[in-house]
Amino acid sequence: MLPTLNASHWPTPPVSGTSRLARHPLNSNLDSPRLARDFARRTLAEWELEDLLCESEVVISELVTNALRYGLPGRHRMARAPIQLILMRQERRILVIVTDPSGEPPVLGEPDEFAESGRGLQVVAAVSEAWGWAPLSTGGKAVWASFAI
């Protein structure tokens, strides 16, 4: 299993001019994971990186689902677009970033083998090159995963 990176290990910012950024706000609806995957599919096709689609779609589904389930404290549940998917292409990697309004860090748990949920971050850790999270200066957090190009 890959090591979990915490907030102090945010990926190194790209060198100016070598990155591309795509952003998609998401509402707190049950169809948000699907909409996020659709956005990623279009974006990665535009960037000619379809070979990263399978793994990134799995991670996007897990991160958006976690943001919906754990990242929307009471008053944010009905807010318009409280979650955001950001895709960042750097020279040698793609970053998948999902932001939400909760400041609570994600927890990589050890699920019961018979549990029907609780494995999301384990899947993210297994499928991505690295993952972690960082608090946002505006409040909330960003949970990210990287994939080598």
From TrEMBL:
This is ATP-binding protein. Residues 1-24 are annotated as: Disordered. Pfam families: HATPase_c_2. GO terms for molecular function: ATP binding. Residues 1-19 have a biased composition (Polar residues). Residues 28-145 form the Histidine kinase/HSP90-like ATPase domain. Keywords: ATP-binding, Kinase, Nucleotide-binding, Serine/threonine-protein kinase, Transferase. The keyword Glycosyltransferase does not apply. InterPro entries: Anti-sigma-factor_SerPK, HATPase_C_sf, HATPase_dom.
